[in-house]
């Protein structure tokens, strides 16, 4: 409510938005930012290290734009609870002297600094609740962070490895959010006798499908967001329906392993509201199963391979879908109308060069507000214009058709 009020007054600018219109990121003018930084420093709420400020600093929240002079600065902030670095810098930032000055730290965000090897000095910060860093490995001793609630790991560009074996994560009962970017976690439970139920865990991405066993699923009953990557040829069915609170699912595959077998091996929970399929092989039965999900509101298809190169929905499918993204698909023929997508509000089609046209019946959907077309064939562009003109002739001026606009 307060954030929206600031947006309405043009004090905050909306950056990225979710498909349903919720704000994902925002920005402010330089003058307003300088005022906020100054005010935060005066009230001892946040200290931003841009330039040297004389006198002692006792803020519990510290943000640095680079690692220069950090070693000197840390001697002045023994009470720091949160430490963020927003610019690239040297690995020496985590020297023993620095860590000794941050014993009380709870939040450490050094995602912009790449560590080829996990910095062992971090293990001394036993009070950490939030840890974000870039590295190619995680030691088993990370399970000693008993208080850790959020773990974000970004894979580094110089590393060829894209998987991290982490059975120890199953022992960290306070974890609420696990996010791996550029790499994925692999739970190896073959030799584990005891499993701890992680009833606090709400989001987990990305996990290798080979690590999704029945035992692992039993330990994460309250999961709300899940990301899966196909790391092998899938031969066993993964029943995700036991995750009754799951509302967001992202499945990523590759042509190396997947020709439609990833989706065919998954049993979706009926609670799913947002589904993203990336580089997946799609068989006709898969789309019918997805279309029958009773609560699905957002569907993103990115770089997927339709085996038949056709998509024809059945009546009554996608009854709650509000947002549909079709990006870099090999789809040639698509049949749909208001009986298939009765509540669709936003349709985005990008880089679908093989698609012949947007079905004319799409324009008959009474809830449709926006159609976005970017880098598609001339016939798709022509069909979008035809839909717009037809709706205008019916007096429907509310439908917006945009060309060449990239959705954030």
From TrEMBL:
Keywords assigned: Repeat
Superkingdom, natural source: Eukaryota
Annotated signal sequence range: none
Keyword Ribonucleoprotein: no
Domain Disease resistance R13L4/SHOC-2-like LRR: 99-376
Record keyword Acetylation present: no
Pfam entry (one): LRR_14
UniProt protein name: Late blight resistance proteinR1B-12
Protein's organism: Sesamum alatum
Lineage start: Eukaryota, Viridiplantae, Streptophyta, Embryophyta, Tracheophyta
